[in-house]
Every structure is written in structure tokens, then in C-alpha cells.
Amino acid sequence: MQIKYMACFILLGVVSISACKCNRQHPPTGEAGAVYIYEFEKGAPLSADNTKKLIADFLGNQPTTDLFVSKEDNIAYFVSPADVNTTLEQDLNNGNIAFSKLTQAYLGDLKPQLPSGQDAVRIGEKFLKEKGLFPKNAGELKLVHTGGVRAQTAKGPIIDKMVTLTYARVVDSMQVIGAGSKIVVNIGDKGDVVGLIRRWRELNTGGRKEVKAEEMISQEEATALAKRQIAQEFGEKAGYDFKEIRKSYYDNNGGILQPVYVFETVVTLRSQDKIQIPPVSYLCVIPLLKQSPEPLNLTKTDPRAKELIKNIDRAGIDTSDRKNLRNKD
Fold first, then answer.
1. Rounded to whole angstroms, how far apart are CA atoms 218 and 220?
2. 109 conformational bin, left if phi > 0, alpha if psi -120 to 50, beta if neither
3. Would you tell me which of 57, 261, 310, 315 could form a disulfide with 286, CB atoms 3.0–4.6 Å apart?
4. 106 to 150, 191, 243, 272, 309: CA distances (angstroms)
């Protein structure tokens, strides 16, 4: 399973009052089941000293004089002076981390000895546990994709460079979407973990609040909003097909986890010059709560969320030379 909601972060806009023409529509699904508002547990305040410890733990002995903390968003950034492909980032607001310790060899002719998919899962989960990064509630962690990265030089063979494990979060039997609640582990030569993206905070499950019927919009209302949203983003003449309508939870890296309606949609665009345009997969997200205790910020593109999605698509790699690297599904 691949992550397919990049369009959601980029394309979601203010709902208009336009109508939308539909090719066909499947019956709504996922109406039943209680939903809740969860708060995330608050951790101890973080500082650059915490980031330095992570650098030593994940990247080894590195000079940290070049560690930079952005005053604007309170995120610490590190790039090794010895190799620009060795990096670490920590969000000091919520503890989210990402690191890569790829070497130039991975961009060259190195043919790493990679583990099988099953062994990679064992290696990745062992790493998370040893580093204290494994979720407290193991039942929330779900492996949604096992892939990898391949590279090919101009005249050389195709080489598998790493195995990538992508985990999502499941709460109340529903997968969490949004910028947070995901873990990506990149495994390279001889089972070495060469990269990680961890956006995960523990839930205060004891303090969850059930959403009452009068506090949420109906699925019928959500469907109307979704139609209008598609019309605004793709034009009134665009056709669409709701493949699935369901409730889910949304993690916007804020203070709470809240329910939303999700419309898995295929949009068909019509070109004026009769050029064939492939259908577009679009994950349309509509807030479920009439009055949310925290804005979802669906109309505001989070550059870090976009970068995370890009990283997932290319298995978490962030190097200075990506032209010969591509995903292996």
C-alpha cells in the first residue's frame, strides 16, 4: 500500500458553492462506529542538547558545531561536514525526528547485501525498540508498505540499494492520516538502518472524549462539501468517482487527534484541446466536527508534511544526487 494523499495537502482549498458533475457514485460506506477526540501526551521540553544526543546515537561521532536551530519553527537541523548525505532533523516542539546516514557509496556502484522483507521487518522493529522509538501501544503500529530503492548508472545494471518499511497508525480500527503518526525505516547494506522518519506521539487514551451525534456533520453534508471542493479544485466540468467514503482520524502534528471524513476519489479531467489526461487519484478530507477544538489547517500546506510524503515516495532519501534513484514497489 502506498501513500496517496499528497494531492490532499496540496490541493485542498476553501469550499465554494459550485456544483460538481459526477460520472457515477458508489453508496456511502463507513457510517457506523463511535469516534473520539484524543489528546497527545505532552513530553518534556526539548532543546538542542537533545538533538546532539540523537546525532551521537544515530550518526556516531560527529562535530555538532554546525547544528542549526530555526527560531521561526523551533526545528534543529544538522548536516555532517564530512558528508552532506548524513543528516538529522528534530522538531523540538513535538519530538519528531528524521535522519539519514547514506554515504556516497550508495550513489555509486555499491551493491549492498539487503535482508529479505521478513528479515527487514525484524531488523527495523528491533532497531525501534533498542532506540526507545517503538510505540507504547504496539497494536497501533501497522506496516502498510514494504518497498525499496533501486539505482542504475548510465550503462550499469539496476541495483537494489535499500529496503524501506512504511508504518502507519491505526486507532479504533481506523488508519490515521495526515502529517503525523507514521514511521519510515530504511535498511541498507548488511541490515544497517541507514535512515528513519518518526512522527509519533503517544495518545492519552484515558482522556479520550466521545463525539456526540449532534457535534458532527452528517455524511450527507460531508459528501456535499466534498463535491463542492472537487469542483473548486478541478473545475465544474470534472467528473469524479467516489471509490470509498469512510471515517478516519487526522494527525496534523498539533495537540489532538480528531475524526474526519475521507473520500477516496478518482477525478477525470476534460481537456479543451482533446488531449488525453490520465485520471487523478485524490484523497478528499472533510472535517467531521461542526466545531473543531483545533483547526486541521487543510488549506495550509505544511512544507514538512510535503517533504515527508516525498521522502516516503523515495524511501526517505534526501541526498544531493537523486537522479539515478527510484522506488521499488
1. 5
2. alpha
3. 261
4. 10, 14, 39, 45, 22
Question: How many whole angstroms separate alpha carbon 240 and alpha carbon 177?
Answer: 22
Angle at 176 between CA 241 and CA 227, to 5 degrees: 25
Nine-digit cell string for 72: 521561526
Sequence-separated (6 or more) residues with CB below 8 Å from residue 254: 294, 297
Give the three cell numbers for residue 239: 467528473
CB count in 10 Å sphere of residue 117: 14
Residues in the chain: 329
pLDDT in tens, 274-327: 677 889 899 999 999 999 888 887 655 444 444 443 343 333 333 333 334 556
Phi, psi of 227 (to 5 degrees): -60, -45
- Sign, CA torsion 126/129/131/133: positive
